[in-house]
Amino acid sequence: MFLGLCALALIMLTPLWGGSLGRLTTLRFRGVWIVLVALALQVVVITIWPSMPHAAAVAGHLISYAMLGAALWLNRKLPGMALIALGVAANGITIALNGGTLPASAHALRAAGIQLRNGFDNSGVVAHPRLAWLGDTMVTPSWLPMRNMLSIGDVLLFVGAAVLVVVTTRRPATSSR
Protein backbone atom coordinates (compact mmCIF):
# COMPACT_ATOMS: atom_id res chain seq x y z
CA MET A 1 0.00 0.00 0.00
CA PHE A 2 2.78 2.42 0.93
CA LEU A 3 4.63 1.86 -2.35
CA GLY A 4 1.39 2.38 -4.26
CA LEU A 5 0.93 5.76 -2.56
CA CYS A 6 4.55 6.63 -3.39
CA ALA A 7 3.93 5.77 -7.04
CA LEU A 8 0.80 7.93 -7.05
CA ALA A 9 2.75 10.83 -5.51
CA LEU A 10 5.45 10.37 -8.15
CA ILE A 11 2.88 10.62 -10.91
CA MET A 12 1.27 13.70 -9.31
CA LEU A 13 4.68 15.42 -9.08
CA THR A 14 5.42 14.86 -12.77
CA PRO A 15 4.75 18.51 -13.75
CA LEU A 16 7.58 19.63 -11.40
CA TRP A 17 10.24 18.26 -13.77
CA GLY A 18 8.37 19.43 -16.84
CA GLY A 19 6.87 16.05 -17.53
CA SER A 20 3.67 15.30 -19.37
CA LEU A 21 1.27 12.84 -17.77
CA GLY A 22 -0.16 12.17 -21.21
CA ARG A 23 3.11 10.49 -22.16
CA LEU A 24 2.34 7.69 -19.69
CA THR A 25 -0.42 6.63 -22.07
CA THR A 26 2.26 5.94 -24.69
CA LEU A 27 3.69 3.09 -22.60
CA ARG A 28 3.03 -0.24 -24.21
CA PHE A 29 3.07 -2.45 -21.14
CA ARG A 30 2.66 -6.10 -22.09
CA GLY A 31 1.11 -8.77 -19.89
CA VAL A 32 -1.02 -6.46 -17.76
CA TRP A 33 -3.36 -9.37 -17.06
CA ILE A 34 -0.42 -11.35 -15.58
CA VAL A 35 0.35 -8.52 -13.15
CA LEU A 36 -3.30 -8.14 -12.17
CA VAL A 37 -3.71 -11.88 -11.51
CA ALA A 38 -0.43 -11.97 -9.54
CA LEU A 39 -1.47 -9.02 -7.38
CA ALA A 40 -4.95 -10.49 -6.88
CA LEU A 41 -3.33 -13.76 -5.79
CA GLN A 42 -1.23 -11.87 -3.24
CA VAL A 43 -4.31 -10.08 -1.91
CA VAL A 44 -6.15 -13.40 -1.51
CA VAL A 45 -3.22 -15.11 0.22
CA ILE A 46 -2.20 -12.20 2.47
CA THR A 47 -5.40 -10.29 3.16
CA ILE A 48 -8.58 -12.15 2.26
CA TRP A 49 -7.70 -15.71 3.30
CA PRO A 50 -4.64 -15.63 5.58
CA SER A 51 -5.89 -18.77 7.37
CA MET A 52 -5.65 -20.95 4.26
CA PRO A 53 -3.42 -24.00 4.64
CA HIS A 54 0.17 -22.81 5.02
CA ALA A 55 1.51 -24.81 2.07
CA ALA A 56 -1.16 -23.32 -0.21
CA ALA A 57 -0.39 -19.80 1.01
CA VAL A 58 3.34 -20.26 0.41
CA ALA A 59 2.69 -21.73 -3.04
CA GLY A 60 0.34 -18.87 -3.95
CA HIS A 61 2.84 -16.28 -2.72
CA LEU A 62 5.71 -17.80 -4.70
CA ILE A 63 3.58 -18.29 -7.83
CA SER A 64 2.62 -14.60 -7.70
CA TYR A 65 6.32 -13.64 -7.75
CA ALA A 66 6.99 -15.98 -10.68
CA MET A 67 4.10 -14.35 -12.54
CA LEU A 68 5.47 -10.87 -11.83
CA GLY A 69 8.84 -12.04 -13.10
CA ALA A 70 7.23 -13.20 -16.35
CA ALA A 71 5.50 -9.84 -16.84
CA LEU A 72 8.75 -8.00 -16.14
CA TRP A 73 10.55 -10.12 -18.72
CA LEU A 74 7.91 -9.19 -21.32
CA ASN A 75 8.56 -5.50 -20.54
CA ARG A 76 12.33 -5.65 -20.02
CA LYS A 77 13.02 -2.93 -22.63
CA LEU A 78 11.03 -0.26 -20.79
CA PRO A 79 13.05 2.30 -18.79
CA GLY A 80 13.56 1.36 -15.14
CA MET A 81 12.33 -2.19 -15.65
CA ALA A 82 15.72 -3.72 -14.79
CA LEU A 83 15.61 -2.04 -11.37
CA ILE A 84 12.02 -3.12 -10.82
CA ALA A 85 12.96 -6.69 -11.80
CA LEU A 86 15.94 -6.60 -9.44
CA GLY A 87 13.63 -5.50 -6.59
CA VAL A 88 11.07 -8.23 -7.36
CA ALA A 89 13.87 -10.80 -7.60
CA ALA A 90 15.41 -9.67 -4.28
CA ASN A 91 12.06 -10.02 -2.52
CA GLY A 92 11.00 -13.19 -4.34
CA ILE A 93 14.26 -15.08 -3.77
CA THR A 94 14.39 -14.04 -0.13
CA ILE A 95 10.77 -15.13 0.34
CA ALA A 96 11.47 -18.47 -1.35
CA LEU A 97 14.54 -19.12 0.82
CA ASN A 98 12.54 -18.36 3.98
CA GLY A 99 9.58 -20.66 3.49
CA GLY A 100 7.26 -18.11 1.89
CA THR A 101 7.86 -15.23 4.31
CA LEU A 102 9.99 -12.13 3.82
CA PRO A 103 11.99 -11.94 7.03
CA ALA A 104 11.34 -8.82 9.07
CA SER A 105 13.42 -7.55 11.95
CA ALA A 106 11.61 -7.48 15.28
CA HIS A 107 12.85 -3.90 15.69
CA ALA A 108 11.28 -2.84 12.37
CA LEU A 109 7.98 -4.50 13.30
CA ARG A 110 7.89 -2.67 16.64
CA ALA A 111 8.94 0.67 15.13
CA ALA A 112 6.25 0.41 12.46
CA GLY A 113 3.64 -0.65 15.03
CA ILE A 114 2.79 -3.78 13.10
CA GLN A 115 1.23 -6.65 15.01
CA LEU A 116 1.62 -10.11 13.52
CA ARG A 117 -1.63 -12.03 13.26
CA ASN A 118 -2.53 -15.68 13.22
CA GLY A 119 -2.23 -17.31 9.82
CA PHE A 120 0.02 -16.51 6.89
CA ASP A 121 2.01 -13.28 6.86
CA ASN A 122 3.98 -12.20 3.82
CA SER A 123 6.49 -10.56 6.16
CA GLY A 124 7.37 -11.54 9.69
CA VAL A 125 10.00 -12.69 12.13
CA VAL A 126 11.70 -15.86 10.86
CA ALA A 127 13.61 -18.09 13.31
CA HIS A 128 16.77 -18.51 11.22
CA PRO A 129 16.38 -16.14 8.27
CA ARG A 130 18.38 -16.50 5.09
CA LEU A 131 19.42 -13.23 3.43
CA ALA A 132 17.91 -11.32 6.35
CA TRP A 133 19.52 -8.10 5.09
CA LEU A 134 17.16 -8.29 2.09
CA GLY A 135 14.12 -8.52 4.35
CA ASP A 136 11.95 -5.82 5.89
CA THR A 137 14.60 -4.05 7.93
CA MET A 138 13.80 -0.38 7.26
CA VAL A 139 10.85 1.61 8.56
CA THR A 140 9.20 4.58 6.92
CA PRO A 141 9.55 7.87 8.83
CA SER A 142 7.04 8.41 11.63
CA TRP A 143 5.73 11.62 10.04
CA LEU A 144 4.49 9.71 6.98
CA PRO A 145 0.98 8.24 7.01
CA MET A 146 0.54 4.46 6.92
CA ARG A 147 3.75 3.57 8.76
CA ASN A 148 5.31 0.52 7.17
CA MET A 149 8.43 -1.57 6.78
CA LEU A 150 10.55 -1.67 3.65
CA SER A 151 13.10 -4.01 2.14
CA ILE A 152 15.94 -3.27 -0.24
CA GLY A 153 13.77 -4.90 -2.90
CA ASP A 154 10.97 -2.42 -2.17
CA VAL A 155 13.39 0.50 -2.52
CA LEU A 156 14.65 -0.88 -5.85
CA LEU A 157 11.03 -1.25 -7.02
CA PHE A 158 10.30 2.38 -6.21
CA VAL A 159 13.51 3.70 -7.80
CA GLY A 160 12.75 1.66 -10.94
CA ALA A 161 9.20 3.03 -11.02
CA ALA A 162 10.60 6.56 -10.63
CA VAL A 163 12.93 5.99 -13.59
CA LEU A 164 10.02 4.65 -15.64
CA VAL A 165 7.79 7.64 -14.86
CA VAL A 166 10.47 10.33 -15.21
CA VAL A 167 11.94 9.00 -18.45
CA THR A 168 8.52 8.34 -19.99
CA THR A 169 6.95 11.67 -19.03
CA ARG A 170 9.88 13.98 -19.72
CA ARG A 171 9.42 16.14 -22.78
CA PRO A 172 12.09 15.78 -25.44
CA ALA A 173 14.64 18.59 -25.53
CA THR A 174 14.01 21.12 -28.25
CA SER A 175 16.89 22.08 -30.47
CA SER A 176 17.74 25.75 -30.92
CA ARG A 177 18.80 26.00 -34.55
Task: Reconstruct the topology from this structure.
Blueprint: H1 2-12, H2 32-48, H3 54-74, H4 81-97, E1 102-103, H5 106-112, E2 123-124, E3 138-139, E4 149-150, H6 152-169
Parallel strand pairs: 1-2
Antiparallel strand pairs: 3-4
Helix pairs in contact: 1-6, 2-3, 3-4, 4-6
Short description:
This protein has helices at residues 2-12, 32-48, 54-74, 81-97, 106-112, 152-169; strands at residues 102-103, 123-124, 138-139, 149-150. By secondary structure, it is mainly α.
- pLDDT < 50 runs, ≥5 residues: none
Order of strands, main sheet, comes to 1-2
Question: What order do the helices and strands follow?
Answer: HHHHEHEEEH
Which of globular, elongated, flat, extended, rod-shaped describes the shape? globular
Global Rg: 18 Å
Total individual domains: 1
Helix count, DSSP H or I runs of 4 or more residues? 6
Oligomeric status of the shown chains? single chain
Structural class: mainly alpha
Q: Termini distance? A: 47 Å
Strand content: under 5%
Largest sheet: 2 strands, parallel
| Mean pLDDT across all amino acids | 86
Q: How many strand elements?
A: 4
Q: Assign a percent range to the helix content.
A: 40-55%
Describe this structure in words.
The structure is a single chain. The protein has 177 residues and is mainly α. It has one domain (30-169). It contains six helices and four strands. It has helices at 2-12, 32-48, 54-74, 81-97, 106-112, 152-169, and strands spanning 102-103, 123-124, 138-139, 149-150. The strands form two sheets. Strands 1-2 form a two-stranded parallel sheet. Strands 3-4 form a two-stranded antiparallel ribbon. Strand 1, helix 5 and strand 2 (123-124) form a beta-alpha-beta unit. Helix 1 runs parallel beside helix 6, helix 2 packs antiparallel against helix 3 and helix 3 (54-74) packs antiparallel against helix 4. 25% of the residues are buried. The mean pLDDT is 86.
